[in-house]
Amino acid sequence: MSEVRVRFAPSPTGLLHIGGARTALFNWLYARHTGGKFVLRIEDTDAARNTPEAVAIIFEGLKWLGLDWDEGPQTDGTTVGDHGPYFQSQRGAIYKQYVDKLLAEGKAYEHEGAVKFRIPKTPITVPDLICGDVTFDRTMDPDLVIQRKDGTPVFHLVNVVDDLEMKITHVIRGEDHLSNTPKHLALFEAFGATPPRYGHIPLILNTNGSKMSKRDEGASIGDYIANGYLPEAVRNFLCLLGWSPKENKEVVPLEEVIEKFDLPQINRSNARFDLNKLYWINGEYMRAATLDRLEPFAAAILRREGILGESYDAAYFRAALAIVQEKVKLGKELGDWLAYFFKDDYAFDPAAVAKVFTPEGLANLKTLRAALAEASDFSSAALEDRFKTLAAAQGKKVGVYIHPVRLAVSGRSVGPSLYHLLEVLGKDRTLARTDRALAQFPG
RNA sequence: GGCCCCAUCAUCUAAUUGGUUAGGAUACCGCCCUCUCAAGGCGGGUGCACGGGUUCGAAUCCCGUUGGGGCUACCA
């Protein structure tokens, strides 16, 4: 009946952790599934590692993944939402009120300058939407420091106060917080407030089963951006970690995930991070991407690598992209496949030269060069026809022509469909490159 | 150590919630296709951690063991 309000409350640590990204994703999915609100709150109470750059990295990561938030600080410095401020560092006065209230009611007390909250020494059950009922004994639990000697509030306090003030209805967070939940529940009770529903999602582990920490390979979303993963692929992969669309599907459109996603179906066991599968999914998305999607993505990468200038021949670039698209699985590989399209003095792969530019291979190349020079139609279909006709006339297989030209016009033995490659390069370039190869390797 | 969570192929997971030859995907290995590389097609091996129960019947429920993870801060 009341609107669902979930939140992602990262701490600016200098990176967006893959686990945090998935937590954000699950929260976002739940908000979108229920038509609720997704709130972004920055838990920057630890001033030491709180920098504008670190906050910007969180923004960047979320936006890259397509996780837009309905409330919270915006990239341009403005704020959206009526429950702010959304930076904990700006909420000191609010926390103070709550601490004073507990103090006044005798639910907290001062101890060596700090303030401690009296944890009820009775068993408590956390009704978790994912884990089920989890009961904690608490009879031996020590009281909880909620305000340090220096007057600053502690995580557990601010977390609860903010969730309460921001009217969060569902707390979806990592399972590492399950054991902390009794403390949070006690705080809500002390404030006379109804606690949110909780859903603790399993953690993401390294391939070897150890806990994935900041330093580990692939732990940062920034790594995926840098390596040219497609955000939609990373998002799809993350969805599959702890959740399944059933029906033996792996590649799942976002709309379908939003429609099917729900808390009770989330797995309860930790998942290991399988980079192989992410790589495969990325390839799936690469091949399925439209040219309009791929062009800006690829152009940004190739510019960064100095392969493409600020301005470029869009039609030529798109044509090249179209024929290598099905070969490439990762943005990072794009440069390797496309560099020679934009560079005429490419080097020749020595191993390929040794194998293909044999006296016979070079002779075939010369024969072919003559045939291509006469071609008026340089379309792939016409080229294929011409190659086959030539081969038949000479009593040879087309391969004996194909391999030398490929090496001649690209410097390598691996590439897209040769006829298509020549079509994209065009007659002039093809002949010029062939001549260059012939000049360099006279036989 | 104490408390909590978890346990299906190497990995991510499915199993109409006790009745299946335990399914799919990635990875790996063959074969096919083929101008290279991919993609695609076909095929293959690998799994219910272990031990007890309950039941006509257990991957599924219960207990224990083992293993993994988390929490146990005046970090978040």
Structural class based on helices, strands and sheet pairing: mainly alpha
Order of helices and strands: EHEHEEHEEEEEHEHEEHHHEHHHHHHHHH
The strand line-up of the biggest sheet is: 5-6-9
The total of beta strands comes to 13
Looking at the overall shape, the CATH architecture of the domain at 5-203 is 3-Layer(aba) Sandwich
Globally, the shape reads elongated
What's the N-to-C terminus distance? 81 Å
Radius of gyration: 30 Å
CATH topology of the domain at 5-203: Rossmann fold
Portion in strands: 5-15%
Question: Can you identify the CATH superfamily of the domain at 5-203?
Answer: HUPs
Q: What is the makeup of the main sheet?
A: 3 strands, antiparallel
pLDDT averaged over residues: 94
Proportion of helical residues: 40-55%
Structural account:
Among the domains are: 5-203, 3-Layer(aba) Sandwich (Rossmann fold); 344-443, Arc Repressor Mutant, subunit A, CATH 1.10.10.350. Helix content is 47%, strand content 11%. A hairpin with a 2-residue loop joins β5 (108-111) and β6 (114-117). It has a three-stranded antiparallel sheet. The protein has a two-stranded parallel sheet with strand order 1-2. A two-stranded antiparallel ribbon has the order 3-4. The protein is mostly helical and 443 residues long. The chain binds one RNA strand of 76 nucleotides through β6, β8, β9, α4 and β13.
Secondary-structure map:
Blueprint: E1 5-8, H1 18-34, E2 37-40, H2 52-65, E3 72-73, E4 79-80, H3 92-104, E5 108-111, E6 114-117, E7 124-128, E8 132-136, E9 144-147, H4 155-165, E10 170-174, H5 181-190, E11 197-201, E12 204-205, H6 221-226, H7 231-239, H8 254-260, E13 271-272, H9 275-288, H10 291-304, H11 314-324, H12 331-338, H13 350-356, H14 359-373, H15 380-394, H16 399-410, H17 418-440
Parallel strand pairs: 1-2, 10-11, 12-13
Antiparallel strand pairs: 3-4, 5-6, 6-9, 7-8
Helix pairs in contact: 1-8, 4-5, 7-9, 10-11, 10-12, 11-17, 14-16, 14-17, 15-17, 16-17
The structure holds one RNA strand of 76 nucleotides.
